[in-house]
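Hi support team,

I submitted a single chain yesterday and got back a structure, but I'm not sure I'm reading the token output correctly. Could someone confirm the output below corresponds to the sequence I sent? I've pasted both exactly as they appear in my results page.

Thanks,
R.
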Amino acid sequence: FFAHSGGVTSVLNHIAASVIRQAQLSHNIDRIYVGKNGILGALNNELYDVTNFNEAQLQSLTQTPASAFGSCRYKLKCPVKQADEFQKIIQTFKQHNINAFIYNGGNDSQDTTLKLHTYANQQQHPLLCIGIPKTIDNDLPMVDCCPGYGSAAKYIATSALECSLDVLSMSQSSTKLFIMEVMGRHAGWLAAASAMAYHTSGIGPHLILLPEVTYDANKVPQATQACVAKYGYCVIVASEGICDSEGQLISQQQSFDAFGHAQLGGVAPIIAKQIHQATQLK
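Hi R., thanks for writing in. Yes, this is the structure output for that exact sequence:
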């Protein structure tokens, strides 16, 4: 049983095709299933039988964006206090004679894989659980470069370059400051990727704000002003997870996602307001 989990990237279906192709080569595997919408497929007993996918189908899958089988953001409950979900999953696996669970996702997805592994052992149900890394944040331990990061990094670098050229074109008489906000709760790999767009001629981004570096509301306007004085404009790439000296998220909202993480977003307008108040830059 294979399934996607979390945010989709352009690498997901390539991973699925690779898993299916390798499973087909094994003499120990009779059937290959993919869950519809991630772990929900196991919960709802909704499975795609991909055992007989031919090479043309697999090749087509590698060139299909997002997730052909569907993904999800779903947190399994505590297996000790609320075991009903885990029982449903094991029941589905028993019905289809499934003894291997392969989950493709990020941090929370690996947590799901571990929980299911632990529960299956407690129930003495033979189940091999394997987590395949996938996250654009590039922040999974033991992984040098995580699948999903490369395409996102290229997109951000390209976007930063294009935005820099746009602002440069209008900077003489119009906008001199542009802030591009990117994802990254605790890891600044995505924001840092924008540095690939930097050019020695002065084309931005000029300032990159990372979660790993404390955000100083006084220094950033000064650095912005200095950049405008030197190049005529300033492009800033800011990670959504930047924090102040007390470790508080600059953009934390009052809502939380399915995994209990604070919903982020909106750090760019906050920075823009601070810089405008200090410099009057548009």
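A quick pointer for reading it: The first helix runs from residue 12 to 25. Let us know if anything else looks off.

Best,
Support desk
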